[in-house]
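From the shared-data thread, chain only:
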Amino acid sequence: MSDKTETAAKADDTRTITLPASGKVVVLRKGKGRDMRIAARHVNPAQDPIGYSMALAAALATIDGNAVLPEDLDEMDMEDVTAIMGGLPGKSLPQGMPSP
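Structure, as tokens:
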């Protein structure tokens, strides 16, 4: 199994990731505190840390230029979701949840 995930940070505080399973291109923008607050409104981080992280990832991501919903991540290959989650800053994940 080869790791085809490509990640590049840009000067404008975005991170581009080529997903290993689908080959789609994800752009993760730099998050703000409000992004964490909005994600926590939808999913309680203490009760569902993975759901919270997926909601946060969806808020910060575009895939091939299109907005992403958490439900979109639910239907993606786990390998691609893990690559997206791995692109999130470690401190944005709930306490006690390991960074992918």
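The chain is about 35% helix and 20% strand.
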